[in-house]
Amino acid sequence: MIAVLFGSFAILLLAGFPVSLTMGMASLLTILASGELRPLLLPQHLFNGINSFPLMAVPLFILAADLMTAGKLTDSLLRFAKALVGHLPGGLGHVNVLTSILFAGKSGSALADAAGPGAIIMDMMRRAGYPPYYSGAMTAASAIIGPIIPPSIVMVVYAIAEGRVSVSSMFAAGILPGILLGVVLFITNHIISVRHGYQYAAAFGGWRAVGVGFVQSLPGLLMPVIILGGVFSGIFTATESAAVAVAYALLVSLLVTRALKLRDIPRVFLKSALMTSGVLLIVSMASIFANLLTVLQVPQAAAAWLTGLTTDPTQILILLVVFALICGLFIDTLPAVIVLTPILSPIAFHAGIDPLHFGILFIVAIVLGMNTPPVGPVLFVVATVGKLRVELLARAVLPMLLAQLVVLALMVAFPAISLFIPRLLGYAN
After folding, report:
1. Residue 397 gets which letter from DSSP?
2. DSSP per residue over 181-243, as a string?
3. What's 375's DSSP letter?
4. What is the pLDDT of residue 169?
5. Of 350 and 45, more confident
6. Could you tell me which of 155, 344, 349 has the C-alpha nearest to residue 239?
7. Angle at CA 155, nearest 5°, toward 423 and 356?
8. Sequence-separated (6 or more) residues with CB below 8 Å from residue 258
9. Less Cβ crowding at N or C end of the chain, within 10 Å?
10. How far apart are the two ends of the chain, measured CA to CA in Å?
11. Residue with the larger pLDDT of the pair 259 and 197
12. Contact 140/393 with Cβ under 8 angstroms?
């Protein structure tokens, strides 16, 4: 049955079917071929896979990000980033990265960043004289910071699938790694800009301009402060924080920026509903696939095979991270997290690896695959928006991807990068 499950999955994926339908059809074929499993399992697990209170945060965070975009709050973040770092060598590249870091706290989605503010900055870079593929590469590389810096949809899904960690602890663990991913992009952009003469920097408007930009962007900057402050202080749960984010984004967009009109609200809700339906379809299909893996005892077989190779925790962790990186080349982030977490997380746990530390490593490794063919959803979004060829964009993003892999290696070597803040807040022992 394992051969039927993985064989049909591989064939359907190579045939070009969407990942969600591929997992659902492979699961159905396996159930029918077994002769023992009831077909009724499929609709039951499709429903149970999304029947989760913490998962309510997903549509709410998506809606909050869409409301902020409609309310022009992202525009003020962009102006602030340009005032702060736009005058440096390779200035608009730095603006690209900083905006992604700031926007990460609103959407938690790499695709939302790439299609939203990332697309705007990419166009600005091209008009300023940056090569089109370099502009696209910086946009794609900085966009994947979105799922790492909290709040993050991927972290919500991982916490549900793992069961040993809370959503709030995952949020805490993602702060430093997300910032480090941004820092290495700042460094990479500076080196490449100086080497190739990308000195398209705007004149520094002075600290007064920075201060004005900060004040104008304050409504947007306060959102992650309110969300994370409330979660870490225990005022509300991570799921409730998503509802707070929606209320805050709605009020600010209607009453402060006044860019959102009452007549626009149905359109924003419809856009969020369409995005949510796609995400939850992936989650539900991946849930039945993951359940079949458990029924077929794939986690136990994987653990036995891996421990047969080595029993050293560090070596096991390296092997798991490398495996996650490889899987990220072929499977999109959300289905990869749902399917692989029940397999890899128990192996890491029994090897004595902190599940919180492994979770962040695992997510960073999988997310890096969003910029790597053949799946690479961020690459395809950026290529579509910028009218670029995916294969050339993948080549241009390689230096940034290598720099971010260095951060992943540092996280393996120094667990404190992901565990320092959770320990400080009392989440990890």
Report:
1. T
2. HHHHHHHHHHHHHHHHT----PPP--HHHHHHHHHHHHHHHHHHHHHHHHHHHTSS-HHHHHH
3. T
4. 92
5. 350
6. 155
7. 35
8. none
9. C
10. 40
11. 259
12. yes
Cis peptide before 59 (omega within 30 of 0): no
3-state secondary structure (DSSP) of residue 78? helix
**Inter-residue contact 289 to 23 (CB < 8 Å):** yes
Gap between the Cα atoms of 61 and 17, Å rounded:
28
Residue 60 has pLDDT above 90, yes or no: no
Structural tokens at position 9: 């999955």
The per-type count for the chain, helices as H runs and strands as E runs, is 23, 0
Residue type, 64: A
The C-alpha atoms of residue 350 and residue 313 are separated, in whole angstroms, by 9
Is residue 425 within a helix (H) or strand (E), and if so which, with residue range?
none
Predicted confidence at residue 112, as pLDDT, reads: 66
**374 half-sphere exposure, CB direction, 13 A CA radius:** 8
AA identity, residue 297? Q
Q: Is residue 46 within 8 Å of 284, Cβ to Cβ?
A: yes
Residue with tokens 């320092």: 420
The pLDDT tens digits of the residues spanning 117-166 come to: 777 788 888 887 889 999 899 988 998 888 898 888 889 889 988 888 98
Q: Enter the pTM of the model.
A: 0.85
Q: What angle do CA 383, 388, 391 make, to 5 degrees?
A: 80
Q: 192: which 2 tokens?
A: 């490449």
Query: Is 206's pLDDT higher than 90?
Result: no
Q: What is the DSSP string of 23-60?
A: HHHHHHHHHHHHSSS-TTHHHHHHHHTT--SGGGHHHH
Contacts of 38 (CB under 8 A, 6+ apart): 31
- Report d(CA 323, CA 344) in Å as an integer: 9
At position 158, the amino acid (one-letter code) is Y
| Residues comprising the chain, all counted | 429
pLDDT tens-digit map of 275-286: 888 888 888 888
Q: Which residue has the tokens 């992901």?
A: 418
Residue 369 DSSP one-character state: G
Residue 291 has pLDDT above 60, yes or no: yes
Over the stretch 16-42, which tens digit does the pLDDT of each residue have? Answer: 788 788 888 988 888 888 877 788 878
Rg of the chain on CA atoms, in Å: 21
Residue 150 phi, psi dihedral angles, 5° rounding: -70, 155
List, for residues 393-416, the tens digit of each pLDDT value: 989 999 999 999 999 999 999 999
pLDDT in tens, 320-337: 999 888 888 777 788 888
Type of residue at 38: R
Q: How far apart are CA 409 and CA 184, in angstroms?
A: 13
Asked if 89 contacts 201 with a C-beta cutoff of 8 angstroms, the reply is yes
